[in-house]
Design a protein that fits this description.
Length: 140
């Protein structure tokens, strides 16, 4: 036998070493497969949740925006009287007509004061000015 020839024992030793290497690689690959399978299951579950959400959301009713709070009427009794006049009226009114309905003297000072109050109520959204100087309660 020469130095280049392999003995049966040497071949068997190399085969055993190769078998151990393959077994170690197989074990590492099995661990990777276990980790990848777990990750794949997580992704499948997440995809299912997204799919369910995509089906459920269109079936939900559109949320209604909260109703804005009702405008607050100023505390002065004149505003209560003005609103009583508009509640009884079935058409838009001018400041002069509101003065007459409130039994105020039809004088420029009174008309201007009522006009200012009507503008203030308009700014608060309690009344609407349909055209310059003509006021009414807004219709829903």
């Amino acid at each position: 036998m020469t130095g280049g020839e392999l003995t049966l024992g040497a071949v068997l030793a190399r085969l055993e070493e190769r078998e151990r290497d393959i077994a170690a690689q197989a074990e590492t690959t099995r661990e990777q497969i276990t980790q990848l399978t777990a990750r794949l299951n997580e992704l499948d579950r997440a995809a299912d949740e997204v799919r369910i959400t995509g089906k459920t959301l269109p079936e939900l009713p559109d949320p209604q925006p909260p109703a804005p709070p009702a405008p607050k009427l100023p505390d002065h009794p004149a505003y209560q009287q003005i609103m009583a006049v508009f509640t009884a009226a079935d058409h838009p009114l001018r400041a002069r007509q509101v003065c007459e309905a409130m039994d105020l003297t039809v004088a420029p000072n009174n008309i201007n004061n009522i006009r200012l109050k009507l503008k203030r109520l308009t700014d608060r959204g309690i009344l609407a000015e349909t055209e310059p100087g003509l006021f009414t309660q807004p219709r829903p």
